[in-house]
Amino acid sequence: MNRKLKRLIEEEERTVAKIEELQGHLKDIRIARKQEEDTEIVRSIRTMKLGARELFELLSGIQDGSVSIETLPLAEDEPEEPELPDVQDTELINQNEKGADDAPESEDMIHE
User: Fold this and answer.
1) Boundaries of domain holding 45
2) Which residue among 39, 55, 63, 108 is least packed, with the fewest CB closer than 10 Å?
3) Is residue 12 part of a domain?
4) Do 110 and 58 touch, CB atoms closer than 8 A?
5) For residue range 32-91, what is the model confidence (pLDDT) as tens digits?
6) Is the pTM of this model over 0.85?
7) In this structure, is residue 43 part of a structural domain?
8) What is the DSSP string of 25-68?
9) Residue 18 lies in a domain
């Protein structure tokens, strides 16, 4: 077999292997991104401190399209990806979330 042909075949095989590896990595990144988006949604909903009925109405409204959610565009100087908090920040966040779970619910709050 011609040396040049053999070298091209080997390069093709290496390239295919790299592509498969990168596709697997991309799949993992997409899964992690989806999990982070879901976690952010749950955090946002929890900060509303809604009662069971209000939460059900909000989620039902989102599903049927009768409730719209306003999103603010990122400023040009803001980074798109926030930096990861260090361990102390994570512990503080967990303590704050625990305190929010223990807070009394307000029946006077109305969310659209």
Assistant:
1) 1-65
2) 108
3) yes
4) no
5) 999 999 999 889 888 888 888 988 888 898 889 887 777 777 776 655 655 544 444 444
6) no
7) yes
8) HHHHHHHHHHHHHHHHHHHHHHHT---HHHHHHHHHHHHHTSS-
9) yes
